[in-house]
Structures are given as C-alpha cells and as structure tokens.
Amino acid sequence: MAEALLIIDFQNDFCSGGALAVPDGDAIASRVNELIDSGRFDLVVATRDWHPADHASFAEQGGPWPPHCVQGTPGAELHDSLDRSRIAYVVDVGSGREDEGYSGFEKSDLAEILRRHGIDAVTIVGLATDYCVRASALDALNEGFDVTVDEDGVRGIDVEPGDSERALAEIRSARDSRRR
Q1: Residue 104 in contact with residue 132, Cβ under 8 Å?
Q2: pTM value?
Q3: Strand ranges in 9-82 using DSSP code E only, listed in sequence order
Q4: How many CB atoms lie within 10 A of CB 176?
Q5: How far is it, in rounded angstroms, from Cα 36 to Cα 118?
Q6: What distance in Å separates the CA atoms of residue 121 and residue 3, rounded to the nearest whole number?
Q7: Interatomic CA distance for residues 166 and 114, integer angstroms
Q8: How many CB atoms are closer than 10 A to CB 7?
Q9: pLDDT tens digits for 143-166?
Q10: Is 87 exposed, middle or buried (0-12, 13-18, 19+ CB in 10 A)?
Q11: Residue 141 DSSP one-character state
Q12: Contact status, residue 32 vs residue 9, Cβ threshold 8 Å
C-alpha cells in the first residue's frame, strides 16, 4: 500500500506571531519533520491557504477571520522549519475570493496528484485540527483514501472547548464506518 504524508496548512500565519496563530501550533514542527525524515512515505504533499487580499472569510469582508495567508506574503509561506526540498508538491487552496479553502481537496488537484502516484493511504498532520485538518481528512475519506491523523502532529483552535477532540472523533467515526 502506497502512503502519502499530507501536511495541512503548516504556515507562518498559523504559528506563533502569525495573523491567525493556532495555540501551540509551532509545537508540531519536530513531529512533522520526524515523519518527513522517516522514509515511510512514498510522497509528501503540503497544502497552503492562499487567499487574495479581499478574501470573503476576512472580517473586513464580513467573514469570521482576520486577514491571514494572503497570497505572496511571508505569512502565507510554509513554516520556516520545513525543508521544502522534501515536499514533492505544494497545493494551494482558498485562492478564489469566495473559496473557503478549509479542505486541501477543495478546488485543487490534490486527489489527482495522490492517484497519479498510486497512493492508497494518507497520514495527515498540520493546522488546525478542528478546521482544515478535519475538512481535509473527511474529504480524503470521501475520495476513497485510508486516513490516519497523527495526533502528535496536529493542533487546534478550539473556539469552543473540545472542538479539536470532537473533530478527531468525527474523523475516526467516518473512517471506521468506511472500513466496515
């Protein structure tokens, strides 16, 4: 079984000092790099939020979030700890003004890339557990991939206490129901 590591939105704006920092988001760096270096994966792919300056999710446009991951800015770049040379593909999402971009599969060629490389299973790490990791994992399952979320390699926002744990439980439940 061919397996890919999906690094979801591990970007500067979602880490310490960023425009929309996930609490303790930087802490996943060592685990993500450990997985990249493990030699276990046939393919490593990273996703990025890649928003236009007038993205609909930004508060100034009536959305819920402060401006973040604006195309071409340092905040939109992958976290500085990642060795880009080890990442085969970077998939940008949320690049249209109205595109939510929560899932790495939304309006992207991620599923096609994985299939082209014969990938059957994905291990997901990244930010944030209760938003983009959740949406990407559920979409990966819907695309027919076996999905594992490495819980040491994710962190969540937890707008409501327990959001991250509920997201992980939802992913486990969806995965288990597909395996039956």
Answers
A1: yes
A2: 0.97
A3: 43-49
A4: 9
A5: 19
A6: 5
A7: 27
A8: 27
A9: 999 999 999 999 999 999 999 999
A10: middle
A11: H
A12: no
